[in-house]
Amino acid sequence: MPQNPLSLKWWQRARSPNRKFWVDKMSTTMNHQSNKISDWQTKRWSDFQEKLGKISDGNSFQKKRFPELGDWRSWRGFEDFSEACPLTTKAELEDDRMASPPWGSNLTFNEDQYLRYSRTSGTNGEAISWVDTAEDWGWMLGNWDSILGHAGVRAGASCFFAFSFGPFSWFLDCL
Asked: Does 29 share its domain with 75?
């Protein structure tokens, strides 16, 4: 018999005359969680497809380096995307920015739709700058809302973050 008090409760339930009730309850709970995850994954892929369509239509940098992007409608999920999509290197972004200053050609929308400007510190070479739309920024803030909410952080809480200034420099704008 297990010694852990929490395990003891489950052990007792497993041996109780009401065992079927507990097994059914666990099965129902697990199915509900599985459905929530499946719904989330479906929505996540659907949202991503919407963005792929915008990138496919308007981003000359991605169209040039990633011709398979035109087939995005045939992809069934993130696995298909991952198999088709090459990783973008820092060198590719730097070369593109040198050829098309100041932002390069990796823009999906007209310049007037970009509202935020961010820049790395340049610790490992030239600083890289990029621009975000209001939708980009809202998406990023929404992710932080979700992460902090799941961590139990509520309004009025104080948070301390350890992070590098390279990829997370934009985070300071959130505080």
From this structure: yes
Nearest-angstrom CA–CA distance, 26 and 34: 12
Domain boundary among 103, 128, 154: 103
Show Cβ contacts of residue 167 under 8 Å, excluding neighbours closer than 6 positions. 120
> What is the predicted pLDDT for the residue at 26?
61
Calculate the alpha carbon distances from 65 to 48, 51, 59, 80 in Å.
Answer: 19, 17, 10, 17
Structure tokens at 50: 């919407």
**Whole-structure pTM value:** 0.63
Domain that holds residue 71: 24-103
Residue 78 has pLDDT above 70, yes or no: yes
Label the pairing between strands 114-119 and 129-133.
antiparallel
